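Quick review question:
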């Protein structure tokens, strides 16, 4: 068994398992991709130990916390670690490579495994993510796919990816469709840190010498904020506009947002946020349609009176090369039509 010093983020792939010793709440907020959560203290135990430390001092906190840690380590040894062979080589981390991961590493080494501790813990990984974003984003060769609401931009990106193109799916990473009604039912958005971790992981896989297709987004996707350098890179990149007919867009929206009709009251509440912008009378009509499951007239008016005017105003203001955009025209946004759109995008001549 070797007893090397703590390892760096770049060495993670050399280990058989990556163990996050932090609490479930910390793990849920963000964690290193591929890690499993085996906490040495759960959320309530950590609260108790922290309170003891403040009220009575380090000794009592460590005495009580030590018993909790021992019980949790026994549970892990009898559970997820029970079938690991003698040559198993895990890497353990907590917040800053402190007592939590250190205590787990000590016990795993006593068993006979070559356990190691990540230098700097999660905090060092967080710095790594920010460094990766700072390094990769300026090198991205982006083609920004734009189009009015209902133009099937996300589906076109997915079709491009199936054809081998490099695609950065920001809405997929943010788990949100990016509009007022873009929240996905039963699917919470990640934390800002988790989004940035997923973004850095996606960028690592790209060939920076090739084009990356990305959907034209605002600076926020739901409650997620795009890193400022990425938003600026998108604004300065070449644009491709999907120009779909209103009829095709409405038919697509009725398919893609059909789930909004499953909870008419929630839809009506969300529409209520538009009263200041659209007026009580208009929004009242929209809310009535929502409660009546009348999605066709609702989506039609939302397109014409809310989304389209905003789209027309925002694109030229936000994208430096908007006037030089390349366009693909669509009158069909069915599955077959979307596949044809992807082919048309790939066939576009390169921008000057």
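Suggested answer, residue by residue:
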């Amino acid at each position: 068994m070797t007893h090397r010093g703590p390892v760096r983020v770049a060495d993670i792939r050399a280990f058989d398992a990556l163990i996050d010793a932090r609490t479930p709440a910390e793990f849920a907020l963000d964690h290193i991709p591929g890690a499993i959560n085996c906490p040495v203290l759960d959320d309530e135990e950590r609260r108790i130990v922290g309170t003891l430390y403040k009220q009575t001092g380090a000794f009592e906190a460590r005495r009580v916390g030590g018993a909790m840690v021992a019980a949790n380590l026994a549970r892990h040894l009898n559970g997820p670690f029970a079938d690991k062979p003698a040559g198993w080589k895990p890497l353990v981390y907590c917040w800053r490579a402190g007592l939590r991961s250190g205590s787990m590493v000590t016990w795993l080494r006593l068993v006979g495994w070559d356990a190691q501790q990540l230098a700097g813990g999660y905090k060092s990984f967080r710095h790594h993510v920010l460094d990766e974003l700072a390094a990769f984003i300026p090198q991205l060769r982006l083609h920004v796919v734009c189009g009015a609401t209902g133009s099937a931009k996300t589906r076109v990106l997915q079709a491009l990816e199936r054809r081998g193109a490099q695609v950065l799916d920001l809405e997929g990473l943010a788990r949100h469709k990016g509009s007022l009604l873009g929240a996905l039912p039963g699917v919470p958005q990640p934390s800002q840190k988790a989004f940035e971790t997923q973004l850095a992981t996606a960028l690592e896989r790209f060939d920076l010498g090739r084009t990356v297709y990305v959907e034209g987004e605002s600076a926020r996707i739901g409650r997620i904020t795009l890193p400022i350098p990425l938003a600026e890179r998108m604004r300065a990149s070449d644009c491709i506009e999907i120009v779909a007919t209103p009829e095709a867009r409405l038919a697509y929206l009725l398919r893609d947002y059909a789930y909004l009709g499953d909870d008419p009251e929630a839809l009506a509440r969300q529409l209520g946020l538009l009263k200041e912008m659209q007026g009580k009378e208009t929004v009242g009509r929209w809310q009535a349609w929502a409660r009546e499951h009348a999605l066709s007239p609702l989506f039609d008016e939302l397109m014409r009176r809310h989304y389209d005017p905003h789209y027309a105003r925002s694109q030229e203001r936000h994208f430096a090369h908007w006037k030089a955009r390349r366009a693909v025209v669509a009158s069909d946004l069915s599955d077959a039509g979307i596949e044809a759109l992807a082919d048309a995008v790939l066939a576009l001549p390169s921008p000057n």
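Why it works: The mean pLDDT is 95. The radius of gyration is 25 Å.
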